[in-house]
Write a structure and sequence with these properties.
Elements (H helix, E strand, L loop, with lengths): L4 H9 L14 H7 L7 H9 L5 H14 L5 H4 L10 H13 L11 H8 L8 E6 L10 H12 L3 H19 L3 E11 L6 E11 L2 H10 L5 E5 L2 E7 L5 E8 L2 E7 L8 H10 L8 H8 L8 E6 L10 H4 L2 E10 L5 E9 L2 H28 L4 H13 L1 E5 L2 E8 L4 H9 L2
Helix pairs in contact: 3-4, 4-6, 8-9, 14-15
């Protein structure tokens, strides 16, 4: 099917600005050409928008198209739809009205902090890395795919139109099966194996809007080998591959989903524990003391994207030890600057001041080495400047300081890098 459900969630949350909905990744013209509507006109879009028997995604895209066309006469069509109880319709109508009137989107509506706490409480106690993303990378408007992937297309020699169409058609394949999906927040946690070679359990908790019945139907029709069962009102789909990988989808509602993954054969997935936490409405995290200490240092209500790590034993040996071995904990918080870049503030604490200072020197060396190597690549192949340029800009923005057993730093991930730069925040 091309992109999978989890890949789509990550595309939405990491896109670099804009796009909370799956449909936001499909240009209007592309959508209606795919659905045999050759001309996107106000008259054609009005007919579809007012037809309650039309396919739901057709109506949503027609409502969006009316806003993009900008004809004030369409306000008479859109205004009655703002109070609709149908999924997404009222929100799409309000957005199109705003476009027609030329109104600013205003601040993104904050997510209830209790909901964020409840998602954080689902993370297993053995997690070494945790984080949340909301609001920062989730903008109110559709994504300009040409702007996001233009640099990559130029560097690869591929037509940007071809690249955009390829991405849009892959998203449309999923839309045809699942309908529209909205992602408001993503909470993640990961444990690390004792030897440091890969993750133990990865958990993602997503909030937004989707149709869990259609997701279950997709799994069943694909003959995915999944096992399906329910725990009270929580629908569960799980599978274990022959080589040991395990997948679990837990769907308590059409507004919340939990995904678990492990590469370790025989790993006991915390399905029962997670279902009890969901049913009890637990909001207190069951994390280790180091991570709880880091959480106390983060203003999670007003910080739109953050991550914290308790450096696992496996990272204090081998290659990882060179940059992480001196530290017990690391945290990063991010926010947008006026230019649209992602400013990241980081802090890492250890117990040996000399080891911390030495590690920071090593990191500075790697940064300078990276700048030099990428500069040579761009000199050899100038076309790669479109891709590597923003990374060099990020590396050059890094400032590191040491005070006793704590190291701090800041860097800016430029907006020009799109999703690639967003992913660097989480080390993906």
């Amino acid at each position: 099917m091309g992109m999978g459900f989890i890949e789509i969630l990550l595309l939405i949350v990491m896109n670099g600005g804009g796009g909370t909905d799956l449909l936001d990744y499909v240009p209007t013209d592309t959508y209606f050409q795919q659905n045999s509507v050759l001309a996107v006109t106000a008259e054609a879009m009005t007919r579809i928008a007012q037809n309650e028997d039309a396919k739901p995604t057709d109506r949503l895209m027609a409502i969006r198209a009316l806003g993009e066309l900008g004809d004030e006469a369409s306000l008479e069509v859109l205004e009655p739809l703002t109070d609709s109880n149908e999924p997404f319709v009222g929100r799409y109508a309000r957005r199109s009205i705003r476009w027609i009137r030329g109104e600013d989107a205003g601040p993104i509506t904050p997510i209830d902090s209790e909901l964020l706490d409840a998602d954080l409480a689902l993370l297993p106690s053995e997690c070494h890395v945790i984080g949340q993303s909301r609001g920062l990378t989730l903008g109110p408007d559709p994504v300009d795919l040409k702007a996001v992937f233009g640099n990559l297309a130029a560097a690869s020699g591929e037509s940007v139109d071809d690249m955009v169409n390829e991405i849009a058609y892959q998203v449309l394949e999923l839309v045809e099966v699942l309908g529209n999906i909205r992602l408001d927040t993503l909470t993640f946690g990961m444990s690390v194996r004792d030897d440091g070679n890969g993750p133990g359990i990865v958990m993602l908790v997503a909030r937004g809007q989707y149709d869990r019945s259609r997701l279950l139907q997709m799994f069943e029709e694909e003959e995915s080998g999944m096992t399906f069962f329910s725990i009270d009102d929580i629908e569960v789909a799980s599978a274990q591959e022959e080589w040991g990988e395990q997948f679990v989808f837990m769907m308590p509602s059409d507004e919340r989903m939990v995904f678990m993954f492990s590469e370790r054969e025989g790993m006991q997935m915390p399905i029962d524990e997670t279902s009890m936490l969901i049913q009890d409405g637990e909001t207190a995290p069951a994390l280790g003391g180091v991570l709880l200490d880091e959480l106390e240092q983060i203003d999670r209500v007003n910080t739109p994207i953050w991550m914290a790590m308790e450096v696992p034993p496996g990272f204090k040996q081998g290659e990882a030890a060179e940059v992480l071995g001196a530290f017990d904990a690391v945290r990063m918080v991010g926010h947008r600057n006026a230019e649209g870049g992602l400013v990241v503030d980081a802090a890492a604490r250890g117990s040996n001041a000399g080891a911390v200072a030495q590690t920071v020197d090593v990191i500075r060396g790697y940064i300078n080495e990276g700048i030099e190597e990428l500069g040579e690549e761009m000199e050899y192949d100038p076309a790669m400047a479109e891709v590597f340029g923003p990374i060099v800009e990020m590396l050059q923005s890094i400032e590191l300081n040491v005070e006793g057993t704590e190291a701090t730093g800041t860097m800016t991930l430029p907006n020009a890098g799109g999703g690639i730069m967003q992913m660097l925040f989480f080390g993906i």
